[in-house]
Design brief:
Blueprint: H1 2-10, H2 19-39, H3 47-67, E1 77-81, E2 88-91, E3 95-99, H4 100-105, H5 110-125, H6 128-139, H7 148-157, H8 159-187, H9 191-203, H10 218-235
Parallel strand pairs: 1-3
Antiparallel strand pairs: 2-3
Helix pairs in contact: 3-5, 3-8, 5-8, 5-9, 6-8, 7-8, 8-10, 9-10
The chain binds zinc ion.
Residues 119, 123, 173, 176 line the site of zinc ion.
Length: 240
């Protein structure tokens, strides 16, 4: 009985984590990040690029609302950054940021940009943040008793913990690749053009066959995307 009474107290920490808490934390981090970029006049500084990202993202978001009903009520946000070291990300709850320099340096056409956006969106749709926190608590149970904010910080800053999560994160990247490609295909993009995004990443990489800390090797991602695109092409117009 005593244990039952104590449970709610103990679980006021990270162990009782919900997607709503993760999304609230992500919304706060996103606001901080966006205002920091805005203060340097690097936010949405190219109106035409923002319009382009918006035009490609909106149908993906609409399709996601149908395919993944838990996303239907999300307050999606889309911003662009002029920072040279900004790639792209989508935080929990649908908070997108796209680096303009990355898109132009890779010379992404619209289909390839759709693939990039769909990949990032899938991190949020598949609740990868929540799953990463749960994995961190599984491999280091002490995190269960600590405040969520500490765990939220640690997964991006604690080297020892991050190292233990490398393989888990790499698997999430492959899932975002395949599920993102399928989402963009169901939205209407030709699958092989979507896969072309990974061919470009591989060709533009100095080490296409090497896994990085957080991502599988670009050549491996391209091969997997190409195989998936071939399967989807065979499936023809039957998008499900
Ligand atoms: Zn990713």
């Amino acid at each position: 009985m005593l244990i039952l009474l104590l449970m709610p107290l103990l679980c006021a920490s990270a162990c009782a984590l919900t997607q709503e808490e993760v999304a609230a934390g992500a919304a706060r981090l996103y606001r901080e990040r966006v205002s920091e970029i805005a203060n340097r006049y690097a936010l949405d500084s190219d109106a035409a690029f923002l319009v382009r990202v918006d035009r490609i993202a909106k149908p993906l978001i609409a399709r996601a609302a149908t395919d993944y009903p838990h996303t239907a009520g999300w307050a999606w946000e889309i911003h662009t950054s002029a920072d040279v070291d900004e790639n792209a990300f989508c935080m929990a709850g649908g908070k997108l940021l796209v680096g303009q320099q990355f898109v132009s340096s890779q010379r992404l056409d619209d289909a390839e940009l759709a693939m990039l956006l769909a990949h990032e969106m899938q991190h949020a749709i598949q609740q990868h943040n929540l799953k990463e926190y749960e994995e961190a608590m599984r491999i280091e149970p002490a995190w269960r008793q600590k405040p969520f904010a500490e765990l939220e910080y640690a997964v991006d800053n604690d080297e020892a913990l991050m190292r233990k999560l490398d393989d888990f994160n790499s698997a999430q990247e492959l899932e975002a690749d395949s599920e993102g490609l399928k989402l963009a295909w169901r939205t209407g993009w030709p699958p092989m053009r979507l896969a072309g995004y990974f061919r470009k990443l591989s060709r533009n990489s100095a080490k296409p066959n090497f896994d990085s800390r957080s991502h599988p090797a670009p050549a491996r991602r391209w091969l997997a995307a190409k195989e998936l695109a071939e399967r989807l092409e065979k499936a023809g117009l039957v998008r499900q």
